[in-house]
Automatic annotation (TrEMBL):
Residue span(s) of domain Prion-inhibition and propagation HeLo: 6-217
Protein name listed in UniProt: Prion-inhibition and propagation HeLo domain-containing protein
Organism: Cladophialophora chaetospira
Gene3D superfamilies: Ankyrin repeat-containing domain, P-loop containing nucleotide triphosphate hydrolases, Prion-inhibition and propagation, HeLo domain
Boundaries of every Nephrocystin 3-like N-terminal domain copy: 266-447
Matches recorded under Pfam families: DUF7791 (PF25053), HeLo (PF14479), NPHP3_N (PF24883)
Residue ranges annotated for the DUF7791 domain, each copy included: 556-680
């Protein structure tokens, strides 16, 4: 018994010796003067340390499940002897210096032993092999030292000197690495392990390294460690492939397909049937080639059937027959004329197809994109640009020459070619060229525009509006024919009632959207108990053309509801036009709809139960039907899109709470996008665009308030943050397009009040909330007024801030908080509000404040109490951690220099200001894309401004970048006949303002 206890105590002692060995490993680093070898040498040491940590974890050295072999009377002393020898080797100063090429780099540190360890997680930038495993060991060791009495009795004093060592002689150091490798091998021999377990541990450690350069060095450093070298090479290849795929992919690639409605039950099954009325799709999928064309009028359901075919299992089965022994890839691209640039351009289409090709076979990446592979393999640049259009075209045309291509087959579904924003001939040519390859074919849909008719009429085709009569009949029977009121009519007059159903199907002419609107009109008639002649009149008076039908529906809105309907339609139209893919939340619309006049600060909201939320959404659904006659409707979220949930709960609940308000069909938006439509009587009562932006902002603000109430600690704050993101975005749009000052001011004031009421844990973890906002004020400050102004400054609301100064007639230099206003514009000085600095920074805001008298050299103390100026603080900021366009940084730097920023001072690191600027300019030039040569010109402009300041001479600068800001007429700006903006600068500085083209695009990079 005593012997067993002694052996158990011996295992605890082993852990202490092992910890010393790991610490001693960490005190050795390569000298920088060794050049490129220093990373190689450090990595070799890391490999041995990692293998040592793997051994400790495998045998459970500091866990509750220890390998019983450690308690063996013969094994334990042997293990202890090896660890003691390793500790002695790494702790012997004279031996390390004379025999192994190390030199003393730092003084001996205090010999103190801290039983409870605080382990700092490595950042992604400095992660090294084994970091994660070392952190796990240290945490477990810390728990052991606190809770294990045996350990505290065994080890009351430190046993090692903590000295930093630098590798000076790489040849001698090789001997040390070899010696350590031998020790690790002996430990593994004493307590053998299974090879499979070892491989898994090596893979885990290598996967933790995201840094490609480190992976490359690891592969070169491992030498005879074949397993580590092989896994490092595989991990490096995988990392490069993933980074290239991520660069090609874009976030909205699948948005349009996901937005297309699911077909009505039982429809479109005829597509797989053989019939002489159209080219046999089943035969084409099974054995055909080149292109199959779906032609159809607007509203005939082209996108719906394309989504149906793309996702249907029968499609894959038939294509598998075509593929035979080849591996099959099915891809898609849904054009969207109202979407982002990628969603409607040839670049977006080619990137989507290339992504599908490469994602299906990663081995093709280095073969099709050799230049991009070479760059990525040797670079750790996080900003890998997508391949150029020419590079993508070369990659896709190169496929046919590859051996791998002969073993694969591809079928792509391309929807809405008529919504392509470029020349139709370019898009058609691209598709037909690829379709000439025997292993690639396309299913294409479009309206029958002349270019598509000319290119595809000789291909297998299907004219959709001629073939959907059966599906329309099913829809009419399902919606109208089974309605209780229609059943009563059929009982009373079967012939008359049946005629109504027949007429609706016949008059639809294959256009699904028309029949949907017709059915809604009949349903209203059912609600009014219309007789058969009255119902027939409803059908007869419906125009056959969609545009005429939309106008007819608008004019049919009850006069008492016209203003209400116009507001609802305007809200959805403006939100759709500005954000395209962002849904208008139904619960938010329901809350907004409850108040006759929006924007009242007297509004008191309360926490809602789930049942109350559902009730509000149900009421909204009914009001949309009665007010808008079905032109707007509530859409339930897709079941595979949990991110739409705003309830801050993972409990099962009604999807109606997470639903959105949508147009009946996209064609309705196209109809409303004609300015003349808003002159129709019902729509003239709608708010102006500027008021609508502010209304949308208020809508999302009250939704955020309700959603944040009743939050429990531990819940995800993403949903409310995304709502607040929409609130700020619409407020910024409203500011940009001229919303009233009191409207924007009310929103900001209410938001500040919300910040005071949300739970602390939520505010601390929120992206948008300004948790510590009170800390920026001192005694005597007008917190209510100034906090609103600071929110506007930090949000980049130029118009609001400008008009505030004009109305208050207060000089901008008046301190509104502990920090200068310019500091708030540059840094988000609050420290929490808009947490990622500069992400929304506006060049226009910076120039406005400078034009009003803000001083870049104003002395103040930062949040750490250190004296500085806005200029010096900005110059020392590391912007590489944040997404920020280089052009924004260039323009801000230029504005600050023109405004008299001190060029003669030095930074904390001793560098002069001018040399620091030159370094940043070189950095910006290096990272600017080749097709943005204007950025490089603006870098030259910045240097010219510095030179002019030094010479004290005025300079005239020409901007060749994005559009010039004409927002403020008091700022001088000349535009010549070529469209180039000439800004005159000199002693009368701050008289020009340049618009930051990214001002509003930047916000939508983080769309809700």
């Amino acid at each position: 018994m005593a012997e067993a206890a002694g052996l158990a105590l011996g295992v605890v002692a082993l852990a202490g010796v092992f910890k010393d060995c790991i610490d001693l490993f960490s005190y050795i680093e390569a000298a920088r003067e060794l050049g490129s070898d220093f990373k190689l040498l450090e990595t070799r040491l890391d490999v041995e340390k990692t293998l040592l940590l793997q051994w400790a974890e495998r045998v459970g050295l500091v866990s509750g499940e220890r390998d019983q072999r450690l308690c063996d009377a013969k094994t334990q002393p042997a293990v202890n002897a090896i660890l003691e020898s390793m500790r002695l080797l790494l702790g012997e100063s004279e031996e390390l210096q004379n025999r192994y090429g190390l030199s003393l780099e730092g003084q001996a540190m205090a010999k103190t032993h801290q039983p409870r360890l605080h382990v700092k997680e490595s950042t992604s930038e400095d992660k090294r092999l084994g970091d994660r495993r070392r952190q796990r060991f240290l945490r477990a060791f810390g728990d052991l030292t606190v809770h294990d009495n045996d350990y505290r009795q065994f080890r009351k004093t430190p046993t090692i000197n903590k000295i930093r060592w630098a590798i000076r002689d790489k040849d001698k150091f090789e001997d040390l690495v070899q010696k350590l490798s031998d020790f690790v091998a002996k430990l593994n021999a004493l307590v053998p392990h299974q090879q499979k377990e070892n491989v898994q541990m090596v893979k885990e450690d290598i996967r933790s390294i995201a840094n490609s350069v480190r992976l490359e060095v690891l592969g070169a450093a491992t030498g005879r460690r074949d397993l580590v070298a092989d896994e490092a090479a595989k991990a490096l290849d995988d990392s490069c492939r993933r980074r290239i795929l991520d660069a090609i992919w874009y976030r909205k690639m699948d948005d349009r397909r996901n937005d297309v409605s699911t077909p009505f039950a039982g429809t479109y099954r005829w597509a797989f049937e053989s019939c002489g009325a159209w080219s046999d799709l089943t035969s084409w999928l099974r054995s055909g080639s080149a292109i199959y064309w779906f032609s159809g009028k607007a509203g005939s359901g082209k996108s719906t059937i394309m989504k149906f075919l793309y996702s249907h299992s029968t499609t894959r089965q038939l294509l598998e027959e075509w593929a035979e022994n080849c591996k099959l890839t099915i891809g898609d691209f849904f054009f969207w004329g109202l979407g982002s640039e990628e969603q409607k351009s040839l670049t977006g289409l080619t990137r989507a197809i290339l992504y599908e090709v490469l994602e299906s076979d990663h081995s093709l990446i280095q073969l099709l994109l050799p230049n991009m592979w070479r760059y990525t393999y040797g670079s750790d640049d996080p900003k890998i640009s997508p391949p150029s259009p020419a590079e993508i075209q070369r990659a896709l045309t190169r496929m046919a020459s590859l051996d791998q291509f002969q073993t694969r087959k591809y079928c792509f579904f391309i929807d809405g070619l008529d919504e392509y924003s470029g020349r139709y001939s370019d898009g058609i040519s691209f598709i037909t060229t690829l379709a000439e390859m025997t292993n690639i074919k396309f299913v294409v849909s479009s309206r029958p525009i002349s270019e598509c008719v000319q290119a595809f009429s000789s291909k297998p085709l299907l004219q959709l509006q001629d073939l959907t009569e059966g599906d329309i009949q099913k829809y009419v029977d399902g919606v109208i024919g089974t309605h209780p009121y229609m059943i009563k009519l059929l009982d009373a007059d079967e012939v008359g009632a049946t005629t109504i159903l027949t007429d609706v199907v016949s008059k639809a002419s294959g256009v699904f959207l028309w029949v949907i609107l017709a059915c809604q009109s009949l349903l209203q008639g059912f609600g009014a108990c219309d007789r058969i002649p009255e119902l027939r009149a409803r059908v007869d008076e419906l125009p056959e053309e969609l545009q005429d039908l939309f106008q007819y529906m608008l004019l049919k809105i009850d006069r008492r509801y016209q203003a209400h309907a116009a507001r609802m339609l305007r809200l959805r139209y403006v939100s759709y036009k500005r954000t395209q893919t962002i849904a208008l939340n139904a619960l938010g619309m329901a809350l907004f709809d409850e108040f006759d006049v929006w924007g009242s600060n007297d509004l008191r909201l309360q926490c809602l139960t789930m049942k109350e939320k559902v009730t509000k959404c149900e009421l909204l659904e009914g009001r949309l039907t009665s007010r808008c006659l079905g032109l707007l409707e509530v859409h339930l979220p897709e079941p595979d899109q949990p991110s739409t949930c705003i309830c801050n709960t993972f409990e099962e609940h009604s999807p109606l709470v997470d639903s959105s308000v949508e147009f009946l069909q996209r064609s309705l938006f196209e109809f409303l996008d004609e300015p003349s439509v808003w002159q129709l009587e019902p729509l003239t009562k709608a708010d102006e665009h500027t008021e609508t932006y502010a209304a949308l902002s208020f809508l999302y603000l009250i939704l955020a308030e309700v959603s944040s109430m009743g939050l429990e600690e531990g819940k995800d704050t993403w949903a409310v943050d995304s709502i607040l993101g929409a609130m700020f975005g619409y407020a910024m749009y409203g500011d940009y397009f001229g919303a009233k000052v009191d409207e924007i001011g009310m929103i900001l004031l209410r938001f500040r009040a919300m910040m005071s009421n949300v739970p602390v844990f939520f505010a601390e973890n929120s992206y948008w909330l300004w948790y510590d906002w009170k800390s920026v004020f001192v005694a005597g400050d007008d917190v209510e007024t100034n906090s609103t102004l600071l929110l506007a400054v930090e949000s980049g609301m130029v118009s609001f801030v400008s008009r505030c100064f004009e109305a208050e007639e207060v000089d901008v230099a008046t301190r509104r908080s502990r920090f200068p206003l310019l500091g708030h514009a540059l840094f988000r000085t609050s420290g929490q509000f808009l947490q990622q600095p500069i992400r929304l920074s506006s060049v226009a805001m910076v120039r406005l404040l400078l034009s009003r008298g803000s001083d870049p050299n104003e002395d103040f103390r930062d949040k750490h109490g250190i004296r500085t100026t806005p200029w010096l603080q900005w110059l020392q900021k590391d912007f590489t951690k944040y997404w920020v366009p280089d052009s924004t940084l260039i323009d801000i730097a230029t504005a600050l220099v023109e405004a008299g920023a001190d060029l003669g001072s030095s930074l904390k690191n001793g560098k002069s200001v001018t040399s620091a600027i030159q370094e940043k300019v070189s950095q910006w030039k290096q990272h600017s894309p080749d097709d943005h040569s204007s950025w490089r010109g603006n870098c030259r402009m910045l240097l010219d401004a510095i030179e002019a300041r030094q010479r004290q001479k005025p300079v005239t600068l020409k901007f060749t970048g994005p559009a010039v800001d004409l927002l403020h007429p008091q700022i001088e700006n000349e535009v010549d006949e070529t469209g180039t903006s000439t800004l005159r600068r000199g002693n009368k500085r701050r008289r020009s303002m340049r618009d930051c083209a990214f001002l509003f695009e930047e916000f939508w990079v983080n769309e809700v």
